[in-house]
């Protein structure tokens, strides 16, 4: 586990995956079909992780491809606004397009419509990865969606292989989204392969259950993955908190209850808070708790990237919140 922790403490992250545009109905509580106005900002799981990291004092570079149009330029501008490095992003001409998510700031009958046809982020190639200097990162993060289609799948495995050869630890957010995959069988096989190649694996009970072939088998799958020396696995259970497993040990942590205005963005913020806190010198258990606090902050506010907390906001939240569940 020392090599993994040292890599995270290096605080320079290369993040593989997508950026997109988020449109969320305004004001809070408004349904999309009734809305007169939508707010626009950056979205996409990997872009959100980047923003979360930078806001918490880390350095993050997004590794992806974007389309040659106004929506992509909007996303690039927002990445720059938040301080995310964009030097590893390739512009792809043609008919491929950015992801678009249209959702609401409400928890009752929440709707999130995601447009992914002809997604440009799946056009990242092995040649693109060969142009990336993985030695410039202290750790590499991959979200599971990048494995859903070619050429992105092969390109990401190339990136993981290159990072490992350079001694750079690999962090894997399972992030299983069924609509992106050709079949559940392919998804299970590919995501399991990605997990086997990673040093830190983060997922929820449903995702581990999916990898294992049944929700009741998920924790056993997490234990199996955690059996590799030096690997850390975080098994998230929603309102029940999380179990962290490593080197034959495990500990359970709770959550910080809040009044949520939406359900999405929590996982991205958890990842950013976890890693930035380890990098800042917190113990793994404290870092998991700070990641949980970040998740609570994000679901209590509209949007995803704009809701990611700064270090000051996180510390204020922790100082004023009654405390986590057991």
Output the keywords.
UDP-N-acetylmuramoyl-L-alanine:D-glutamate ligase; about 35% helix; 11 helices; 4-stranded mixed β-sheet; single chain; 9-stranded mixed β-sheet; about 325 residues; alpha/beta; PfkB_Carbo_kinase
What would your notes on this structure say?
It is a single chain. The chain is 37% helix and 21% strand. By secondary structure, it is of the alpha/beta class. The chain has a single domain (2-320), classed as 3-Layer(aba) Sandwich (UDP-N-acetylmuramoyl-L-alanine:D-glutamate ligase), CATH 3.40.1190. It has a nine-stranded mixed β-sheet, sandwiched between helices. It has a four-stranded mixed β-sheet with strand order 3-2-6-7. Strand 11 (232-236) and strand 12 form a beta hairpin. It is globular.
Strand order of the largest sheet: 5-4-1-8-9-10-11-12-13
The CATH superfamily is identified as Ribokinase
Provide the CATH topology. Answer: UDP-N-acetylmuramoyl-L-alanine:D-glutamate ligase
When the domains are counted, the total is 1
The helix/strand order is HEEEHEHEEEHEHEHEHHEEEHHH
Shape: globular
Structural class: alpha/beta
Q: Give the beta-strand count.
A: 13
| Quaternary organisation | single chain
The portion of residues forming beta strands comes to 15-25%
CA gyration radius, whole angstroms: 18 Å
Q: How many strands, what sense, and barrel or not for the largest sheet? A: 9 strands, mixed
Flag low-confidence runs. none
With helices defined by DSSP (H or I, 4 residues minimum), what is the helix count? Answer: 11
Euclidean distance between termini CA atoms: 26 Å
Helical fraction: 25-40%
What is the CATH first-level class name? Alpha Beta
Which architecture name does CATH use? 3-Layer(aba) Sandwich
Mean pLDDT: 97
Keywords: Kinase, Transferase
InterPro entries: Carboh/pur_kinase_PfkB_CS (IPR002173), Myo_inos_IolC (IPR030830), PfkB_Carbo_kinase (IPR050306), PfkB_dom (IPR011611), Ribokinase-like (IPR029056)
Domain Carbohydrate kinase PfkB: 16-310
Family: Belongs to the carbohydrate kinase PfkB family.
